Every structure is written in C-alpha cells, then in structure tokens.
Amino acid sequence: MSGKKMAYARVSSTSQSLDRQIEELKKYVDESNIIVDKASGKDLNRNGFQALKSPLGLRKGDTLIIKSLDRLSRNKADIKNELEWFKSNHVNLQILDLPTTMIQLPSGQEWIRDMVNNIIIEVMSSIAEQERLTIRQRQKEGIDIAKKQGKHMGRPSLEKPVEWEKYYDMWKRGNISAKKAMEFLNLKKTSFYKLVSEK
To answer: Are 37 and 48 in contact (CB under 8 A)?
Structure first.
C-alpha cells in the first residue's frame, strides 16, 4: 500500500514518558511523523489522535503505526469503531506488538491477514478493556479503604485564618471591600470565595 507513513504514541498522563514508544516507532518513520498524546485511553477525545483523523491527517493509502492496540484505546467498542474507520478510509494500521498486521501479502490475498487480525484484535481489545476496568476497580477499592481509615482524599481542606470571622463580618456588613478583607486575611481571591461559599 503506497502513501505516507505516520505513527502514533500515547501515555495516560503527563507524568509518564513517551520515550520508549517513540524509540520503537522511529525504526519505521521519521520522528517528525510521530503524533503523540498524553491522555487517558478511556475515550477518543485526544488532540493528537483527532488530528490524524482530520482532513489534514491520514488519507487513503496512508499507513499508521502504533506500538500496541491499547494505544488507540482501552475501550473495546471504541477500538472496533476505530478499526472500522481505518478500514473504510483505506488507511493501513500496523501494530508492532501484533506482527500479523506487519505482513505484506500479494494483492488479492489480504483477506488472510484480515481474518487472522480480526480474531487476534477481538481478544486483545477484550483484554485491554478488562485491564481498564480492573484498574478502575482497584482505584475505587483503594479510595474506600482510605476513607474507612479516616484518610482525606483529594485536595486538603482549606483552613480558615484566625481572624476570618472578624473580617468576614466586616465585609458582609459593607464596612470593608472584599479586596481589603483578602489583604487582611492574606488570602487569594479563589480561597476567599471558597471559604465564603462554605458559610
């Protein structure tokens, strides 16, 4: 299949590194042709991936290379929809961890590769989704255990300054402006109004 070759790499968060995937993909495409995302695989709302599917992205006859199937998504339904998009748009998808997708067959025999890939991808997409559900369940269990142990989850609660009531009352009565109250209490605007909302 002729056309340009692109590659796509993804990690789930900004704290994770794309280096390992990029090094692998550079064996097949120039680094300038590698599109990256640092975003969860739970859905497809990712800037880099959507750019690949835009009118300026992949076209008929092009090839997209990814390290593994779960770089597309960890949602089974989304994976199936995306594979259908590649097929209907005549974009060749090659997955490094799935060697059968890398095989070049004579014209007219592509159905053999497609048949094998369909079976393997069905299994792998099921595994990817199950891993996502397992991670979510473990996170929930961890939060539940922490709550039972009295540990606070999320951002630490905002403590009221010692003279909060005094300056809050003055502000409420209109004796001082909100800006002055913030100055006296040494609070930022967001912190001040957060405490106000908790009254």
So the answer is: yes
pLDDT in tens, 128-183: 677 767 777 877 777 777 777 777 655 566 788 888 899 989 988 899 998 998 99
Cα separation of 75 and 139, whole Å? Answer: 18
**Is the distance from CB of 74 to CB of 131 less than 8 angstroms?**
yes
Residues 89, 58 contacting (CB under 8 angstroms): yes
Burial group, residue 16, by CB count within 10 angstroms (0-12, 13-18, 19+): exposed
Active site residues: 12
Identify residue 120 by its one-letter amino acid code.
I
For 5-131, give the CATH class. Answer: alpha beta
Q: Are 60 and 90 in contact (CB under 8 A)?
A: yes
Distance CA 86, CA 8 (A): 14
